[in-house]
Write a structure and sequence with these properties.
Helices cover 58% and strands 18% of the residues. The strands form 2 sheets. It has a 4-stranded mixed β-sheet. Strand 3 and strand 4 form a beta hairpin. Helix 1 crosses helix 7 and helix 2 packs antiparallel against helix 4. The longest helix is centred in the N-terminal third of the chain and has 40 residues.
């Protein structure tokens, strides 16, 4: 009789532990999903994909990037929102294509250039002292030729494309724009270096990966 009673107690304890685990997992997933979705919605990225991984195609990619960024900087310096930058990009797609095609021709190639704006998948990326979790972001994408080579990406809004890679520091103005778009918690996650913040960032990545696997199986 005592053994049966003990068994029932252990069974109840295990059930409670399981329910607590499920509740914690659901809360963690909801948290990660809400935070990551808002981060995705607050950022607009630039994505340039080379024709191939050959040294000359990779060099060409960077030349296209430099000219695109130079033009972008002249247009979006005073932009205060993602929507403003997207509207500028939409109104200048033909100009972006023209700039990229001119660079391609000037360097002796005849690759086609495709320019589009859409929602694309990106891996985790660090821009100076700001880190963005992997996931799907709105972006301006420039495909050069076969677009089968290594790609280059940055953030058009807030303007992180112009981060000084030697110092690894994002300008205060860019941080301020990002902070205005995100909640305090979200901004600390992408900019913080404390163990607690790093844990939350890893949590975002973990649940985003789980969600991606689940979605791919549907």
């Amino acid at each position: 009789m005592k053994k049966n009673h003990l068994f029932l107690i252990v069974k109840k304890i295990l059930l409670l532990v399981l329910l607590l685990f499920l509740f914690t997992s659901i809360c963690a997933f909801s948290y990660a999903n809400a935070v990551s979705e808002h981060i995705y919605d607050s950022v607009f990225r630039l994505h340039v994909i080379a024709n191939s991984d050959s040294s000359y195609d990779q060099e060409l990619k960077y030349k296209v990037r430099d000219k695109i960024l130079e033009y972008l900087n002249s247009l979006s310096t005073n932009c205060k929102s993602k929507e403003e930058v997207i509207n500028i990009a939409l109104n200048n797609i033909s100009k972006f294509r023209e700039i990229a095609e001119n660079v391609v021709m000037e360097n002796g190639f005849d690759y086609n250039v495709d320019v589009s704006i859409g929602n694309y998948e990106f891996p985790t990326k660090q821009y100076g002292d700001i880190s963005l979790p992997s996931g799907f972001y709105d972006a301006l994408r420039i495909n050069i030729g076969e677009a089968s080579g290594q790609n280059w990406w940055c953030v058009m809004f807030p303007p992180l494309c112009f981060v000084d890679v030697t110092s690894g520091i994002v300008p205060d103005g860019s941080k301020e724009l990002l902070q205005n778009e995100l909640s305090g918690e979200e901004f600390y996650i992408v900019s913080g270096n404390s163990p607690d913040i790093k844990f939350k960032f890893k949590l975002l990545e973990l649940f985003n990966n789980v969600a991606k696997i689940y979605t791919s199986k549907k």
